[in-house]
Amino acid sequence: MPQVTLTVNGQTHTAEVEGRTLLVELLRETLRLTGTHVGCDTSQCGACVVHIDGESVKACTTLAVMANGSNVTTIEGLAAADGTLHPMQEAFREYHALQCGFCTPGMVMSAIDLVKKHPDGLTEQQIREGLEGNLCRCTGYHNIVKAIAAAAEVMHGKRAEIARAAE
Amino acid sequence: MYDFQYHKPASVADAVKLLADPDAKAISGGQTLIPALKHRLNRPTAVVDLSGIAEMKGIRREGNAIVIGALSRHDDVAGSAEVKAAIPALADMAAHIGDTQVRNRGTMGGSISNNDPAADYPAAVVALNATVITSKRRITADEFFQGMFTTALEPDELVIAISFPVPEKAGYAKMRNPASRYVMAGVFVAKTGGEVRVAVNGAAPCVFRQGEMEAALGANWSAEAVGGIKQDATDLNGDIHGSAEYRAHLVTVMAKRAVAAAG
Asked: Which segments constitute the 2Fe-2S ferredoxin-type domain (chain A) (predicted)?
């Protein structure tokens, strides 16, 4: 069986996998990092999005062996060791950008990639288009879009803290 | 998904040797193959991962052509300074394939080798009269795409790069299904060295050239020139997403938009 060695959230892991093992299966079933979800399992919903070497990918459509040697970040790897949330997580909380929460890990991971790829800022339209690969069936997206806009301001250094949502 | 042997060759020569096995399948980004494996539409005994082959990577200008390595991801093409400067319509096409996560994995070589009727790149390859450089030969765009999911590639033949002549003008427009975002009909128009080529994707089982529009644009490069041309609906795809007649109508609308985008 192929062996893979990869860094997940800063920790190096080595595991035996089958050729057909998906990255999301390795993360959830072997490493027990169950924050990465499997929604559709057909590359459409984006609940399984993680970062490989800083870029968002669908972990249900990536073979674990193909991630060999790479640096993977999952939703569990975002908050600081003392529990301080990543600005994107903080913004999702502040703007009530989730209801059932199932899509949230993938939304947050996609949103961070989106903000990093637009260092000059993002329009609402760019945020909506950037979320094309993530489906949410509860929120209607409005609060997700607001949260990402607020997080972008902090991630780009324009504000020190997430702007408060209107009461 | 059934299990398979996994190989990761470091050279085209080694990959081709592994692909001599008729039950072996090549993988690059995997954005089509992995879903197909899950559905057991494909059942290879060996999967050959091309991602470590340096010869198949990189985007460069060679004289009056842009040469794009087969392993270039859609995001690489969309962000390439060379492509944006020389063929902005191609960079823009790449920026609107699938979604961000697909663009971060899917490759140009994989897309054209698969030749899905709804794929975007085949229209650019045909309209720009690109040459497909393989592990065995050079294949013209007109010869490469042969039918639904069918190309001129032999089972152990790999696309190494695609060479696109730099056009004077080029534009692409597509109508996406509102739910799946797959192309219902797309039109790529290009004028290269005085020759006009118009390629239609998404509307039929395989990309095709629209000769009547090529002649009209050759005489008068304007949206009005193609606006009165009606695409024959015979042989176009008709399914739950749209009838053949609807797709035929879209071909004219997309052609007008593509010419307008090309300027």
From this structure: 2-78
Range of the domain at A32: 3-77
Q: Is B30 within 8 Å of A63 when comparing Cβ atoms? A: yes
Question: Domain of B245: which CATH number?
Answer: 3.30.390.50
How many distinct structural domains can be found in chain B?
2
What kind and span of H or E run contains B37? Answer: helix B33-38
Please count the other Cβ atoms lying within 10 Å of the Cβ belonging to residue B44. Answer: 20
Q: Each residue of A58-69: pLDDT tens digit?
A: 999 999 999 999
Which residues are B162's β-sheet partners?
A: B68, B132
Whether B136 maps to a domain, the answer reads: no
Instruction: Tell me what the pLDDT averaged over chain A comes to.
Output: 96
E-assigned strand segments in B180-227 = 183-192, 195-201, 208-209
Query: In total, how many domains does chain A have?
Result: 2
> The domain that contains A99 carries what CATH number?
1.10.150.120
Q: If DSSP codes are grouped into helix, strand and coil, which group holds residue B88?
A: helix
Task: List the CATH number of the domain containing A17.
Answer: 3.10.20.30
Q: Are residues A104 and A70 in the same domain?
A: no
Q: How far is A100 from chain B (nearest CA, A)?
A: 22
Query: Which value does ipTM take for this structure?
Result: 0.95
Nearest to B142 by CA among B214, B77, B75: B214
Domain co-membership, A150 together with A98: yes
Q: CB A19 to CB B5 under 8 A?
A: yes
Q: Looking at B23-149, which runs of residues are DSSP E strands?
A: 24-27, 46-49, 59-62, 65-69, 131-134, 138-140, 145-147
Nearest CA in chain A to B51: A66
In sign, the C-alpha dihedral spanning B55, B59, B61, B67 is positive
The CB-side HSE value for A56 (13 A sphere, CA atoms) comes to 30
Give me the residue label for tokens 């996998």.
A17
Average pLDDT along chain B = 97
Q: Is residue A167 part of a domain?
A: no
| Nearest-by-Cβ selection for B99 from A18, A42, A133 | A133
**Rounded distance between C-alpha atoms, residue A24 and residue A21, angstroms:** 8
Whether residue A65 sits in one domain with residue A102:
no
Amino acid at B90: L
**Span B77-95, pLDDT tens digits:** 999 999 999 999 999 999 9
End of a domain among A54, A77, A100? A77
Token pair of B237 as six digits = 């795809």
Same domain, A93 and A61: no
Query: Which residue from B5, B101, B181 is facing A49, i.e. has the nearest CB?
Result: B101
pLDDT, position A73: 98
